[in-house]
TrEMBL record:
The record marks 158 as: Transition state stabilizer. It catalyses: (2R)-2-phosphoglycerate = (2R)-3-phosphoglycerate. This is 2,3-bisphosphoglycerate-dependent phosphoglycerate mutase. Homodimer. NCBIfam families: pgm_1 (TIGR01258), PRK01295.1 (NF002339). Belongs to the phosphoglycerate mutase family. BPG-dependent PGAM subfamily. Substrate binds at residues 9-16, 22-23, 61, 88-91, 99, 115-116, 159-160. Its EC number is 5.4.2.11. Pfam families: His_Phos_1 (PF00300).
Length: 206
């Protein structure tokens, strides 16, 4: 029995383009982001992959990316579960701020700590550790059991919610996952064994 899990970060958003901290705000996709989502769908179609179930966040950039992918796969209407547990990391007081302006206001070192430390959150926001503490219980309760039952599953979400999943799947340390860059609109294909351990991983960005 195949146990297939595909993770994909949403395509480029309007705030990605403007270099803004986005978090739980809900900007749409750019034209490039739409194109990235179509390409992701085409890549999966070329591999003859289709799905039994989809998961996404409550944010429209992830939902739109998923919708375009499913359109390319001729799977519009696929059962899709949406939950804020899969939302992007909440950047708190940094939300909406240009990253260069944040460095000017708070200092390069402080902003780097907020962005790249595992357990130090920005003011009013979440660290990656806090993000993982909501993502991983949801994964273990809702996503993994369905994958293990043989449901081919795609998750369209965000850079940091997906980092939380990748850290779990690949057994990475906090230091290792913080160095992991996830391209927008790029599928990562995992095949799991009966215990949920990764048998193989294929990053379509490679």
């Amino acid at each position: 029995m195949e146990r297939l899990l595909v993770l994909v970060r949403h395509g480029q958003s309007e705030w990605n383009l403007k270099n803004l901290f986005t978090g739980w705000k809900d900007p749409g996709l750019t034209d490039q982001g739409v194109a990235e989502a179509h390409k992701a769908g085409e890549q999966l179609r070329d591999l003859k992959l289709n799905f039994d179930l989809a998961f996404t966040s409550v944010l429209s950039r992830a939902q739109k990316t998923l919708g375009i992918i499913l359109e390319e796969l001729d799977q519009i209407g696929l059962e899709t579960l949406k939950d804020q547990a899969l939302n992007e990391r909440d950047y708190g007081d940094l939300t909406g701020m240009n990253k260069d302006e944040a460095r000017e206001k708070f200092g390069e070192e402080q902003v780097h700590i907020w962005r790249r430390s595992y357990d130090i959150p920005p003011p009013g926001g979440e660290s990656l550790k806090m993000t993982a503490e909501r993502v991983l219980p949801y994964y273990k309760a809702e996503i993994l059991p369905r994958v293990l039952s043989g449901k081919r599953t795609i998750v369209a979400a965000h850079g940091n919610s997906l980092r939380s999943l990748i850290m779990e799947l690949e057994g990475l340390s906090p230091e290792e996952i913080l160095k992991r860059e996830l391209g927008t609109g790029t599928p990562i294909i995992y095949r799991l064994d009966e215990d949920g351990k990764v048998i193989s991983v294929q990053d379509l960005a490679a």
